[in-house]
Amino acid sequence: MYISKADALAWYSFFAELPEDEPLLPRQQEIALAVLAQIEAAEEARVESLRAEIPGLQSLNGRSFYVGDDARFPKGCRSCLLGTGLSAVRKTNKCNLQCRFCYDYGEMDLQPPIGAGYWEIGGTKFREADLDLLLSACNHPTGIAYVYLEPFIEIEQYYGVIRKFHEAGVYQHMYTNGTLATEENLRALGESGLDELRFNLGASGCADRVIDAIATAKKYIPMVGIETPMTPELYEAFLEREEAILATKLDFMNCAELHLNPNNLGNYWGENLYMYRQGYLSPIWSHELTLKLMRRAAEARWPIAVHDCCNRTKFARDLNLRAHEGGWFGASAYGMEFPSIPYAAFLPILSDEAFPFLREEPLPEGYRPGDMVF
Asked: Where do the DSSP E strands lie in the chain?
């Protein structure tokens, strides 16, 4: 069904007025999904056009794309996309910043604690003394990542755990906004055996002190890079500080496609949104800005790897993880992060004359408003 934009707008305007708990009829569901498919197809065509303009674009086994030095492509991403997946280690339930793109926006004070002295690994609670048991009883992952939320709030508690995994030969990377990083704690992380540190540079607006921390981290940690949801604010700030950022000798930049959930959707209300494979909801400008930055990096021959960590990459990540876990063919945890399609959120893109559908046809018989019984 190649529904027209006019029909799509009319139907989504109607769906947006329905009570949230009122289910759609089967034919209405077909229409709702056809609209998502039309928006997605049009956005993918725009993406392919931008991707075709990037010289030297490289593929990671068809699962993701990047430009630049292959040796500087983050090993944590290789583990995530080719190995046994992203094995998360959770400890800190607090953050010293509140970013409008954060998945926990507005609920930062409501994040449940892991528990004093405890670590959550694979959904199970461990104390540091239990790690020998864990490592002896379970197959070692190709890599682990320290997530949730800002580890540098209590970074001194991480050193012993990092050292234990390092001695077991497990590759480790960590995420931080960088505002609490110091020469002392960065040196301690390196001495403990952390392999890779990723700075969310957008959280600080590319602040000078965080750029300085990236340079300091490179003195002690083998792989250092940036990973931030790509937003217009980050894009503009990065270009203003491009020379200083590249001078830090960082290894990579992961340009994450911003995806929205019920917490942060309101911060981007009114933007043109699309849904990838009926899952992640994102502003169309996020991936497009990534591709523009990748083209700039390729043409200027930046001495780093720039990775397109888009929704497609996240889709591939979950397929890879489930496959390594022995899941059935096609199994994945990837999916929509809303209880139902947020129809009103798509009204701006359906009203935007500058965003045409690739192909439009009249609704078939039985799918027009007068054909349905409500």
From this structure: 58-59, 65-68, 87-90, 118-121, 124-127, 143-147, 171-176, 196-199, 223-229, 252-256, 273-275, 281-283, 305-309
Residue 20 has pLDDT above 90, yes or no: no
| Tens-place pLDDT, residues 348-362 | 999 999 999 999 999
pLDDT, mean of residues 243-257: 98
pLDDT band, very low/low/confident/very high, at 325 (cuts 50, 70, 90): confident
Q: Does residue 134 sit within a domain?
A: yes
How many Cα atoms sit within 13 Å of 108 on the Cβ side?
A: 14
Three-state secondary-structure class, residue 87: strand
Classify residue 46: in a domain, yes or no.
no
pTM: 0.95
List residues bridging with 124 in a β-sheet: 121
Establish if 30 belongs to a structural domain: no
Domain count, the chain: 1
| Residue 281 in domain | yes
Residue 214 belongs to domain spanning: 53-338
CATH code of the domain containing 111: 3.20.20.70
Residue 373 has what pLDDT? 53
Could you give the CA distance from residue 197 to residue 145 in angstroms, rounded to a whole number? 10
Q: What are the C-alpha distances in Å from 299 to residues 51, 55, 114, 335?
A: 13, 7, 45, 35
Query: Is 168:204 a contact under the CB 8 Å cutoff?
Result: no
pLDDT at 207: 98
